[in-house]
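TA notes, week 10

Several of you asked for a full example with nothing omitted. So below is the full record: structure tokens for the whole chain, then the designed sequence directly under it. When grading your own attempts, check the secondary structure regions first.
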């Protein structure tokens, strides 16, 4: 499989603790970015908020190590690229982004994104449910794709010219920030007015989804007041 240059050197593992941990070890060993770690299974996969990320064989687990970019909207851009990747590979697939970085199909989480800063690098870890466990985890549908094609298409999506511009999604984001992508994100996320909770630690704020802002923050209409959150997670009220 040929991967676009943006992925850098590819390191494969059949079993590993976590592709994020391996990327940190490579950086400690002075391997330079970009590079990508891909594993068939992880025995200590990690999610956001130090949660475990269940990583059986057949799932898609990779970490892309690249130059650090100080922008809180990185995970939103990656979510846009990943959602578009799945739409390209699975025509008609209904996938949406739940702020800040979950991919959802019919209320089921099918992929997650973890963005970490390490030294002067950015580690972007992506887990996609491509394994079959109908009871607890929903996979993306079987189709004309392999794991490596998903990963390669993701890097193509990130690095090919974006919407007739001279720049790719990733270059545009470096140059102009998140603002040009707000519209794309709004098309891929839940509708405005959806009743949601924004959860920050023990603090829960309820309101109606207003939009995402130019810094990637989520805005919530709570009793007529627009509140902005740059971090946290969202729970969607299913009755709306
Ligand atoms: C989340 O939704 O909480 C983020 C999950 C990120 C999981 C991926 S799988 C590849 C990489 N290695 C890890 O240990 N975690 C990320």
């Amino acid at each position: 499989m040929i991967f676009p240059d943006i992925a850098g050197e590819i390191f494969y593992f059949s079993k590993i603790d976590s592709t994020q941990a391996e990327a940190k070890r490579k950086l400690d060993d002075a391997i330079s970015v970009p590079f990508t770690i891909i594993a068939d299974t992880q025995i200590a996969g990690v999610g956001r908020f130090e949660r475990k990320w269940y990583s059986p064989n057949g799932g898609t687990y990779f970490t892309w190590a690249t130059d650090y970019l100080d922008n809180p909207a990185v995970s939103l851009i990656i979510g846009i690229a990943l959602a578009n990747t799945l739409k390209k590979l699975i025509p008609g697939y209904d996938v949406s982004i739940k702020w800040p970085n979950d991919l959802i199909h019919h209320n089921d989480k099918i992929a997650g994104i973890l963005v970490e800063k390490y030294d002067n690098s950015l580690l972007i870890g992506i887990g996609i449910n491509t394994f079959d466990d109908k009871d607890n985890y929903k996979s993306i549908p079987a189709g004309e794709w392999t794991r490596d094609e998903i990963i390669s298409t993701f890097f193509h999506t990130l690095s090919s010219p974006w919407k007739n511009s001279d720049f790719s999604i990733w270059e545009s984001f470096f140059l102009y920030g998140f603002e040009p992508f707000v519209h794309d994100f709004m098309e891929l996320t839940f509708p405005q007015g959806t009743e949601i909770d924004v959860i920050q630690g023990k603090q829960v704020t309820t309101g109606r989804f207003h939009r995402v802002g130019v810094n990637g923050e989520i805005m919530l209409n709570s009793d007529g007041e627009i509140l902005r959150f740059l971090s946290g997670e969202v729970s969607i009220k299913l009755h709306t």
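Residues 18-20, 42, 45-48, 51, 53, 61-63, 102, 112-114, 125-127 surround biotin (CB under 6 Å). Use that as a sanity check on your answer.
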